[in-house]
Amino acid sequence: MKKQQTQNKEIQAIRVMSYFIESTAKIIEEEGIDKVTIRKIADLAGYNSATLYNYFEDLSHLIFFASMRFVKKYTDDLPHYISKAKNPLERYFLIWECFCDHSFASPQIYYAVFSSDLGVHPKKLSKYYEFYPTDLLEVPEDLRNMMLETNLSRRTRIALEQCIKEGYIKESNADQIAEAHYLIWQGILTMFINHRSMNTVQEATEKTMKHIRHTIVLEDS
């Protein structure tokens, strides 16, 4: 009986947290991230602000989890991109290409999830996927650990694993390459957000991929 009561409480908690996450996502979609407030979220979810703090430590957690709702388009699209790969290196480039296409199309969302200082930031995405487990259904098994990582440099390092195993790059250089690729993307995304670049989404993706490919070429030489 006690076990059943505990399970019921956990189910209820996830349900309430989902209400808050969906309400936050709606505000982001309709008004933008900068317009998100605790009061707006609570009102839209049908609870008071005090209740919200029973489930989330910080507004940043809600912004993070709500932003992940929009990242689902990327996770859904990723298997289609990498299906074209003929080897691990091509697969790695296509992972980045998919990420760039989606992140430059929704720069504020991806900046919020992977770059911005949101205060008390969740360390793992596993909590989010407890709320929305079906979001990872189409992702290949070997990439699921990558999807659960919020640090984009470490995420990139995971994506490089097959390239290391098959000799495309040296393991001793993998961390540096992963960090470089993350910094390339972050720099171009920041310019994109701050209107310091006139590039279209496609042009921003092509520029990022050119730099990423170039660093691999330098590694091989």
TrEMBL record:
This is TetR family transcriptional regulator. The keyword DNA-binding applies. Residues 37-56 bind DNA. Signal peptide: none annotated. It comes from the Bacteria. PROSITE patterns: HTH_TETR_2. SUPFAM superfamilies: Homeodomain-like. Residues 14-74 form the HTH tetR-type domain. Keywords: DNA-binding.
